[in-house]
Amino acid sequence: MAPKRSNARESTPSTTATSQISTPAATSTPSVPVKSTPKSSSGNLSPQEVALSIWQNYLDTTPQRTKLIDVFMTFLVVVGALQFVYCVIAGNYPFNAFLSGFSATVGQFVLTASLRIQTNTENKAEFTSVSPERAFADYVFGSLILHFFCVNFIN
Amino acid sequence: MRWLLSFLFLGLLGVAQALSASGNRLLVVLEELDDKSKYSKYFGDLEGRGFQITYESPKSESVGLFTLGERAYEHLLILPSKSKGLGPNLTPKILLEFINKGGNILLTLSAITPTPTALVSLLLELDIHLPTERNALVVDHFNYDTLSASEKHDVVLLPRPDTIRPGVKNFFKGDGKGGEVIAFPRGVGQSLGNTSPLLTPVLRAPRTAYSYNPKDEAESLEDVFAAGPQLSLVTTMQARNSARFTVVGSAEMLEDGWFTGEVKRSVGMGGVGTDAKKVKTCNQAFAKEITGWAFQEIGVLKVGKIEHRLNEGVRSNITNPKIYRVKNDVEYSIELSEWSWDKWVPFTPVAEDVVQLEFSMLSPFHRLDLAASGTTTNSTVFTTSFKLPDQHGIFNFKVNYKRPFLTNVEEKNTVTVRHFAHDEYPRSWVISGAWPWIAGIAATITGWLGFVALWLWSKPVPLKLTTSGKKIQ
Questions:
Q1: Is residue A57 located within the same domain as residue A69?
Q2: Beta carbons of A132 and B460 less than 8 Å apart
């Protein structure tokens, strides 16, 4: 259900994103003078403000599909970390199960990262011969093979 | 006529069975054939037990332990002789070869007739040492016979021997009631080397005995060859092929006179035996036990059926398969019988002892006690069950049972232990420990499906602004 929820959160990015864009923008604009007044207009920004502006910039400039990829990758990191922590705490007894579970997540992460690289508009020049559709088809094919291997290996 | 013959045959069979486990041909080597009469009771006992005795003088041409390269006799009894050696047909080399081929030798010594140098060197080879003085004899000033040796103290009286250590069967204690006396007249004590595991003393000298040379004129002894329990009066050696070599320090104790004679012990250490009475010696019974052991009439083990099989919940009907899998549950059983004078009886180890099974590849992976699980009319079945180790390879079921006074049992059965076939591992969901990782795969795959669905559903939104300023899609 977790992916569903995250997707659900992300399934209305067009609306929420726009609203988010508007709200942080609205808050950030007043925050700049608020922060600047105690800093005596040195031009330095606090780390919090830097992070906020990076986040804002990310929200503004990232295409919606790339955001979707990022959400999925975050989800994979969480799942992978949980599996690893479990292995450290409870031991790796059916070691093949740990290997296949963990490597399914890691492999999925790598494949998704590749998809992100290939479909990123920034990298358009790098992948002139690979259209985003082709990249997605490759991704699906690779993922299916990975799932097949992992399900087999966990026995 | 025919039925008579068959009865004769049956009778012969009956005679032939009442004997040693290895055979009944006995060669007695004694110098003067007239000396036979001195040992008439002893030889009578032997013949009564079914031995077929051949008497030879060491000097005779015809004496020979081998015919056409095979043993002509199963057993050899050497009585003392005055000559320096036993002649060209009984050299130490030939005697050793006789042992190597499974023959049993009972050697008797005497202080009156010095031991031939050939025999001394044979004994040295077996790590049994005799006193260097050729006339040395064992004396004891506390445990001598007052009737026959009140002056010389050279007839040593001993009780029946105890078990040499816990866990060893004692064949030589008679009925075990105690109070019996063995007379050991004018014998030669032996000292044993420490290194040979094959040597076992049966009868050791009492604490106060020592080896003494009567030719020595000196008042006090300076250089005692050996004293006390260092001196072994009756020594046994069982070779690795279970052939037996026995040394009896005093041939005289086998003579008729000492079989029936009466003795009266002296006053021993701490006033023991102050009110001693005349008692009959138990030499005859002891001689029977020693000779019986030496000629493999007792203490011979036989391995019967060996079975191993799969026993995983249900006992498999297939016995002794060539191959097992790692972690199989396996049952092993071995039948052991012991020859007791004239028949095979079920073998039971003594209380502190146990028969063990090794499951080994180069070194044992398991060494397990075998428990008696049942008896047949003439054997005990020893069984154990265990789980094979998690190691594939060529393994041996090995029973290596070597004990003093019992013939060696060394049984090896080789089996292959294979690893799991790919479809014999437990499935992942059977192991609860794997569930989190199954959940991990499930989460990854469902997440991926959701991601793909969303990806296909969502429309690529062309962005107006890119950092590189390029136009998109």
A1: no
A2: yes
Taking CB atoms and an 8 Å limit, are B473 and A121 in contact across chains? yes
Listed in sequence order, the residues at least 6 apart from B382 whose beta carbon sits closer than 8 Å to its beta carbon are: B333, B334, B335, B336, B355, B370, B371, B372, B373
Is the pLDDT at B150 greater than 60? The verdict is yes
> What is the C-alpha separation between B381 and B372, in angstroms, rounded?
6
Rounded-to-integer distance, Cα B372 and Cα B206, Å = 38
Residues in chain B with CB shorter than 8 Å from the CB of A143 are 448
Architecture of domain B300-418: Sandwich (2.60)
Question: What pLDDT digit, counting tens, does each position of B233-256 carry?
Answer: 999 999 999 999 999 999 888 888
Interface test with A, best of B423, B430, B441, B465 (most A CBs within 10 A): B441
Backbone angles phi, psi at B134, to 5 degrees: -75, -15
Q: Do A103 and A46 share a domain, yes or no?
A: no
- The mean predicted confidence, pLDDT, of chain B is 86
Q: How many CB atoms lie within 10 A of CB A28?
A: 15
* DSSP alpha helix (H) spans, A37-63: 47-61
Chosen for mutation from B430, B451, B465 (greatest number of chain A CBs closer than 10 Å) is B451
Please answer whether residues A144 and B444 qualify as being in contact, where contact means their C-beta atoms are separated by less than 8 angstroms: no
Q: Do A18 and A45 share a domain, yes or no?
A: yes
> How many angstroms separate the Cα of B434 from the Cα of each of A82, B327, B388, B417, B447?
14, 21, 25, 28, 20
Q: What is the pLDDT of residues B290-348, one digit of tens each?
A: 999 999 999 999 999 999 999 988 888 888 999 999 999 999 999 999 998 888 999 99
* Contact check, Cβ <8 Å, B452/A140: yes
Residues A77 and A153 occupy one common structural domain? yes
Best CATH choice for the domain B17-296 from the list 3.60.20, 3.30.200, 3.40.50, 1.10.3210: 3.40.50
Contact B443 A10 (CB under 8 A): no
Q: Kindly state whether residues A139 and A86 are assigned to the same domain.
A: yes
ipTM: 0.73
Segments forming the whole domain that contains residue A55: 1-61
pLDDT in tens, A36-70: 444 444 578 899 999 999 999 999 988 888 899 99
